[in-house]
Amino acid sequence: MSGRLAVIGLGPGDARYLTREAEDALASADAVYGYSAYLDRVPSRPGQARHGSDNREEPARAAAALRHAAEGANVAVVSGGDPGVFAMAAAVCEQIEAGPHGWRALDVQIVPGITAMLAVAARVGAPLGHDFCAISLSDNLKPWDLIERRLAAAAAAGFVIALYNPASRARPGQLGKALTLLRRHLPAATAIIFGRAVSRPDEQLTITTLEDAGRVPADMATLIIVGSRDTRVIYREGEAPLVYTPRAVAGAMA
Ligand code: SAH
Fold first, then answer.
1. 165 C-alpha to center of ligand 1: Å?
2. Which of 63, 83, 217, 252 is deepest in the core (most CB within 10 A)?
3. For a pLDDT cut of 70, what percent of the chain falls above it?
Protein backbone atom coordinates (compact mmCIF):
# COMPACT_ATOMS: atom_id res chain seq x y z
CA MET A 1 0.00 0.00 0.00
CA SER A 2 1.48 3.38 -0.96
CA GLY A 3 -0.03 5.46 1.86
CA ARG A 4 2.10 6.82 4.67
CA LEU A 5 1.25 7.86 8.19
CA ALA A 6 3.66 9.80 10.40
CA VAL A 7 2.75 10.36 14.06
CA ILE A 8 4.74 13.44 14.98
CA GLY A 9 5.75 14.84 18.37
CA LEU A 10 5.75 18.65 18.44
CA GLY A 11 7.54 18.97 21.80
CA PRO A 12 6.24 21.06 24.70
CA GLY A 13 5.62 24.29 22.78
CA ASP A 14 8.71 26.28 21.81
CA ALA A 15 9.46 25.79 18.11
CA ARG A 16 13.14 25.31 18.98
CA TYR A 17 12.15 22.01 20.57
CA LEU A 18 10.75 20.68 17.29
CA THR A 19 13.18 18.14 15.84
CA ARG A 20 14.48 18.38 12.29
CA GLU A 21 12.86 15.03 11.58
CA ALA A 22 9.48 16.38 12.75
CA GLU A 23 9.89 19.51 10.59
CA ASP A 24 10.66 17.39 7.53
CA ALA A 25 7.73 15.05 8.16
CA LEU A 26 5.36 18.03 8.54
CA ALA A 27 6.67 19.68 5.39
CA SER A 28 6.09 16.60 3.24
CA ALA A 29 2.55 15.77 4.50
CA ASP A 30 -0.50 16.10 2.24
CA ALA A 31 -2.75 16.42 5.30
CA VAL A 32 -2.27 17.06 9.03
CA TYR A 33 -4.62 15.70 11.71
CA GLY A 34 -4.56 16.72 15.36
CA TYR A 35 -6.15 18.28 18.40
CA SER A 36 -6.90 21.85 17.31
CA ALA A 37 -4.61 23.43 19.94
CA TYR A 38 -1.66 21.41 18.61
CA LEU A 39 -2.55 22.07 14.97
CA ASP A 40 -2.35 25.79 15.72
CA ARG A 41 1.38 25.28 16.34
CA VAL A 42 1.94 23.89 12.85
CA PRO A 43 2.47 26.57 10.20
CA SER A 44 -0.07 26.13 7.41
CA ARG A 45 1.30 25.26 4.00
CA PRO A 46 -0.40 25.79 0.65
CA GLY A 47 -2.08 22.63 -0.57
CA GLN A 48 -1.85 20.90 2.81
CA ALA A 49 -5.24 19.96 4.30
CA ARG A 50 -5.76 20.42 8.05
CA HIS A 51 -8.18 18.40 10.16
CA GLY A 52 -8.52 19.76 13.69
CA SER A 53 -10.62 17.93 16.26
CA ASP A 54 -11.45 17.88 19.93
CA ASN A 55 -9.04 16.46 22.49
CA ARG A 56 -11.40 13.60 23.39
CA GLU A 57 -11.77 12.31 19.84
CA GLU A 58 -8.48 10.44 19.60
CA PRO A 59 -9.78 7.07 18.29
CA ALA A 60 -11.92 8.75 15.62
CA ARG A 61 -9.03 11.03 14.63
CA ALA A 62 -6.62 8.10 14.36
CA ALA A 63 -9.12 6.14 12.24
CA ALA A 64 -9.76 9.11 9.95
CA ALA A 65 -6.01 9.61 9.44
CA LEU A 66 -5.53 5.89 8.69
CA ARG A 67 -8.41 5.88 6.17
CA HIS A 68 -6.86 8.88 4.47
CA ALA A 69 -3.40 7.26 4.36
CA ALA A 70 -4.96 4.06 3.00
CA GLU A 71 -6.19 6.11 0.00
CA GLY A 72 -2.52 6.67 -0.82
CA ALA A 73 -1.94 10.03 0.88
CA ASN A 74 1.04 11.10 2.99
CA VAL A 75 -0.70 11.88 6.29
CA ALA A 76 0.67 13.43 9.49
CA VAL A 77 -0.93 13.14 12.93
CA VAL A 78 0.46 15.59 15.48
CA SER A 79 0.77 15.28 19.26
CA GLY A 80 2.15 17.63 21.89
CA GLY A 81 5.41 16.47 23.47
CA ASP A 82 6.22 12.92 22.40
CA PRO A 83 3.51 11.07 20.45
CA GLY A 84 4.21 7.85 22.35
CA VAL A 85 3.61 9.33 25.82
CA PHE A 86 -0.12 9.35 26.69
CA ALA A 87 -0.82 10.41 23.13
CA MET A 88 -1.67 9.62 19.51
CA ALA A 89 0.91 6.94 18.65
CA ALA A 90 -0.83 4.37 20.86
CA ALA A 91 -4.25 5.51 19.56
CA VAL A 92 -3.03 4.87 16.01
CA CYS A 93 -1.66 1.41 16.95
CA GLU A 94 -5.00 0.53 18.61
CA GLN A 95 -6.86 1.41 15.41
CA ILE A 96 -4.41 -0.55 13.24
CA GLU A 97 -4.86 -3.61 15.42
CA ALA A 98 -8.68 -3.34 15.39
CA GLY A 99 -9.13 -2.00 11.86
CA PRO A 100 -9.18 -3.37 8.30
CA HIS A 101 -6.33 -5.72 7.48
CA GLY A 102 -5.08 -3.38 4.75
CA TRP A 103 -4.05 -0.79 7.37
CA ARG A 104 -1.27 -3.16 8.46
CA ALA A 105 0.45 -2.61 5.11
CA LEU A 106 0.76 1.15 5.60
CA ASP A 107 4.14 2.77 6.08
CA VAL A 108 3.82 4.02 9.69
CA GLN A 109 6.50 6.22 11.21
CA ILE A 110 6.57 7.55 14.80
CA VAL A 111 8.59 10.76 15.08
CA PRO A 112 9.66 11.35 18.69
CA GLY A 113 9.42 14.67 20.50
CA ILE A 114 10.54 16.13 23.82
CA THR A 115 7.99 15.00 26.36
CA ALA A 116 6.73 17.37 29.08
CA MET A 117 8.51 15.64 31.97
CA LEU A 118 11.89 16.10 30.27
CA ALA A 119 11.20 19.76 29.51
CA VAL A 120 10.09 20.43 33.12
CA ALA A 121 12.99 18.45 34.60
CA ALA A 122 15.53 20.39 32.53
CA ARG A 123 14.14 23.71 33.80
CA VAL A 124 14.87 22.91 37.45
CA GLY A 125 17.95 20.68 37.42
CA ALA A 126 17.97 16.89 37.28
CA PRO A 127 15.04 15.52 39.31
CA LEU A 128 14.88 12.47 37.00
CA GLY A 129 18.55 11.71 37.63
CA HIS A 130 17.77 8.28 39.05
CA ASP A 131 14.89 5.78 38.68
CA PHE A 132 11.57 7.39 37.83
CA CYS A 133 8.16 6.60 36.37
CA ALA A 134 5.33 8.48 34.69
CA ILE A 135 1.69 8.17 35.71
CA SER A 136 -1.33 9.87 34.12
CA LEU A 137 -3.78 11.05 36.78
CA SER A 138 -6.65 10.98 34.30
CA ASP A 139 -9.22 8.31 35.01
CA ASN A 140 -10.84 8.66 31.59
CA LEU A 141 -9.17 5.47 30.38
CA LYS A 142 -8.52 3.56 33.64
CA PRO A 143 -10.18 3.27 37.05
CA TRP A 144 -9.17 5.72 39.79
CA ASP A 145 -8.50 2.82 42.12
CA LEU A 146 -5.69 1.61 39.80
CA ILE A 147 -4.15 5.09 39.79
CA GLU A 148 -4.10 5.09 43.60
CA ARG A 149 -2.47 1.65 43.71
CA ARG A 150 0.19 2.67 41.20
CA LEU A 151 0.94 5.92 43.03
CA ALA A 152 1.33 4.09 46.34
CA ALA A 153 3.55 1.39 44.81
CA ALA A 154 5.73 3.92 42.96
CA ALA A 155 6.19 6.15 46.01
CA ALA A 156 6.90 3.21 48.30
CA ALA A 157 9.43 1.77 45.82
CA GLY A 158 11.41 5.02 45.78
CA PHE A 159 10.62 6.17 42.24
CA VAL A 160 10.50 9.84 41.35
CA ILE A 161 7.03 10.23 39.79
CA ALA A 162 6.09 12.43 36.84
CA LEU A 163 2.35 13.14 36.93
CA TYR A 164 0.72 13.86 33.58
CA ASN A 165 -2.89 15.15 33.30
CA PRO A 166 -2.98 16.18 36.98
CA ALA A 167 -6.28 18.08 36.85
CA SER A 168 -9.01 19.30 34.55
CA ARG A 169 -12.34 21.03 34.96
CA ALA A 170 -14.04 17.65 34.87
CA ARG A 171 -11.66 16.20 37.52
CA PRO A 172 -11.00 19.01 40.00
CA GLY A 173 -10.48 16.93 43.17
CA GLN A 174 -8.17 14.15 42.07
CA LEU A 175 -4.83 15.87 42.50
CA GLY A 176 -5.76 16.63 46.14
CA LYS A 177 -6.59 12.96 46.68
CA ALA A 178 -3.33 11.89 45.04
CA LEU A 179 -1.29 14.26 47.24
CA THR A 180 -3.03 12.98 50.38
CA LEU A 181 -2.15 9.42 49.39
CA LEU A 182 1.48 10.35 48.61
CA ARG A 183 1.82 11.97 52.06
CA ARG A 184 1.23 8.53 53.57
CA HIS A 185 4.32 7.19 51.76
CA LEU A 186 6.74 10.11 51.58
CA PRO A 187 8.12 12.69 54.04
CA ALA A 188 6.35 16.08 54.18
CA ALA A 189 9.57 17.77 53.02
CA THR A 190 9.75 15.77 49.74
CA ALA A 191 10.47 18.15 46.85
CA ILE A 192 7.70 18.66 44.28
CA ILE A 193 7.92 20.62 41.04
CA PHE A 194 4.94 22.11 39.21
CA GLY A 195 5.75 23.05 35.61
CA ARG A 196 2.96 24.81 33.74
CA ALA A 197 3.01 25.56 29.99
CA VAL A 198 6.73 24.91 29.94
CA SER A 199 8.55 26.51 26.98
CA ARG A 200 5.46 28.60 26.14
CA PRO A 201 5.13 32.35 26.80
CA ASP A 202 3.01 31.76 29.93
CA GLU A 203 5.42 29.23 31.49
CA GLN A 204 5.29 28.96 35.28
CA LEU A 205 7.56 26.88 37.51
CA THR A 206 7.05 26.26 41.22
CA ILE A 207 9.32 24.26 43.48
CA THR A 208 7.62 23.29 46.71
CA THR A 209 7.24 20.43 49.19
CA LEU A 210 4.71 17.65 49.48
CA GLU A 211 3.36 19.39 52.57
CA ASP A 212 2.64 22.65 50.71
CA ALA A 213 1.83 21.24 47.26
CA GLY A 214 -1.93 21.56 47.79
CA ARG A 215 -1.62 25.36 47.56
CA VAL A 216 -0.15 25.35 44.05
CA PRO A 217 -2.72 25.60 41.24
CA ALA A 218 -2.58 22.88 38.56
CA ASP A 219 -4.49 22.44 35.32
CA MET A 220 -4.29 20.44 32.09
CA ALA A 221 -1.14 22.32 31.03
CA THR A 222 0.72 21.36 34.22
CA LEU A 223 3.18 18.54 34.73
CA ILE A 224 4.15 17.64 38.29
CA ILE A 225 7.33 15.89 39.35
CA VAL A 226 7.14 14.31 42.80
CA GLY A 227 10.60 13.68 44.21
CA SER A 228 11.70 10.54 46.01
CA ARG A 229 13.31 10.34 49.43
CA ASP A 230 16.63 10.88 47.66
CA THR A 231 15.68 14.04 45.75
CA ARG A 232 17.55 17.13 46.97
CA VAL A 233 17.23 20.91 46.56
CA ILE A 234 20.29 23.17 46.32
CA TYR A 235 19.39 26.72 47.34
CA ARG A 236 21.55 29.38 45.67
CA GLU A 237 22.00 33.10 46.06
CA GLY A 238 20.52 35.12 43.22
CA GLU A 239 19.70 32.00 41.21
CA ALA A 240 16.76 29.60 41.21
CA PRO A 241 17.23 26.45 43.29
CA LEU A 242 18.48 23.27 41.61
CA VAL A 243 16.45 20.13 42.25
CA TYR A 244 18.15 16.84 41.59
CA THR A 245 18.12 13.15 42.37
CA PRO A 246 21.65 11.84 42.82
CA ARG A 247 22.90 9.04 40.60
CA ALA A 248 23.91 6.93 43.59
CA VAL A 249 21.15 6.26 46.10
CA ALA A 250 21.12 4.28 49.30
CA GLY A 251 17.93 2.42 48.46
CA ALA A 252 15.54 4.19 50.82
CA MET A 253 12.04 2.71 50.60
CA ALA A 254 8.98 3.31 52.74
N1 SAH B 1 2.33 13.58 24.67
C2 SAH B 1 2.45 14.62 25.67
C3 SAH B 1 1.59 14.35 26.89
C4 SAH B 1 0.11 14.34 26.61
S5 SAH B 1 -0.85 14.24 28.08
C6 SAH B 1 3.94 14.76 26.07
O7 SAH B 1 4.72 13.88 25.72
O8 SAH B 1 4.28 15.74 26.73
C9 SAH B 1 -1.09 15.96 28.41
C10 SAH B 1 -0.32 16.36 29.65
O11 SAH B 1 1.05 16.60 29.32
C12 SAH B 1 -0.77 17.66 30.31
O13 SAH B 1 -1.90 17.47 31.15
C14 SAH B 1 0.46 18.02 31.11
O15 SAH B 1 0.54 17.20 32.27
C16 SAH B 1 1.58 17.60 30.17
N17 SAH B 1 2.11 18.70 29.33
C18 SAH B 1 2.08 18.78 27.99
N19 SAH B 1 2.72 19.89 27.56
C20 SAH B 1 3.17 20.53 28.67
C21 SAH B 1 3.92 21.73 28.89
N22 SAH B 1 4.34 22.51 27.88
N23 SAH B 1 4.22 22.09 30.17
C24 SAH B 1 3.80 21.30 31.20
N25 SAH B 1 3.10 20.16 31.04
C26 SAH B 1 2.78 19.78 29.79
1. 7
2. 83
3. 98
